[in-house]
Amino acid sequence: MRPVNFDYLADKLRNWGRWGEADQRGTLNHIGPETLKNAAAEVLVGKLFNLGLRFDRNGPQLARKRFNPMVYATDLFTPMSPAAPDVCYSDDVIHMPLQCSTQWDALGHVHYDGHLYNGCNARECLTENGALKMGINHLAAPGIVSRGVLLDIARLKGVERLPLDYAITVDDLNAACQKESVSVGAGDILLVRTGHMLWFTADGDRDTFMGMQPGLSYTCAEWAHDKSLAAVAADNMAVEILDPEGLASEMPLAFHMLALRDMGMPLGEMFNLEALATDCAADGRYSFLLAAPPLEVTGGFGSPVNPHALK
């Protein structure tokens, strides 16, 4: 059966038509000029944090279809000109899935009941050559930049990393806001730290990192909707909790479905929040300018990203 109250939440949170019948940016529409000005005002001391994982053969992927990036040189020590044989260049190519490491999900990434965000017919929108609608290119232009807010749920619970079966609740999100003395508002991008990233970055344990994991309960989608968030990203592989019960239900990845399909809210996965979280705990400031534009891959179902937080 579907998760309890899923259909009720889907009807309540659905943003179809809110920004027009042709809209393909969803909740990124919450980011307006005033939001960007407020985001820029968060930069006070000049600290810069890279929130992305590396893109190389040693990435987190285990699967055959989602594999780790492979980089090949196409030119090495190639002379610029026969007349200048010692003046050389090198070029390379990369072969990788768009969702193999730190990345954004496009609004066309998931669907149910035959429809994508804003009522797009999946059979008419999705092709072997990409998404005719709801591709990542619509999120890339003009980009994803806004005020970011980190809610460190692992630190809230007094642990290095949450248990693998922990479902983050609305009460957890509110408690983190109170503890961190931070507010979340329209156009903000929420970053959620579970500590799960440490299984990969500290322990080198891909199996645990890519397996069952803590994350947001699907009920947190209503909180995100009420706050008018622009997007949500987290330090795990799925943003939401992955557990056997949820994956076996009639609506697996329920938070994905509510966010991407019903709300039109992009999801960021595998953001490395460790250095940022340590600094936020040290100076007590959990808000910052977040710059995380995806690549403008026409029709892409997702995109690699190298996000940065500026404080």
CATH topology of the largest domain: Glucose Oxidase, domain 1
The spatial strand order of the largest sheet comes to 1-15-13-7-9-11-12-4-14
Any idea what the CATH superfamily of the largest domain is called?
Answer: Putative cyclase
Radius of gyration based on Cα positions: 20 Å
Oligomer: single chain
Average residue pLDDT: 97
Uncertain ranges = none
Q: Any idea of the CATH class of the largest domain? A: Alpha Beta
Largest sheet: 9 strands, mixed
Instruction: Give me the CATH architecture of the largest domain, please.
Output: 3-Layer(bba) Sandwich
InterPro entries: KFase/CYL, KFase_sf
GO molecular function: arylformamidase activity
Protein name: Kynurenine formamidase
Organism: Bradyrhizobium shewense
Key descriptive features of the protein:
alpha/beta, arylformamidase activity, 311 residues, 22% strand, nine-stranded mixed beta sheet, 12 helices, single chain, Glucose Oxidase, domain 1
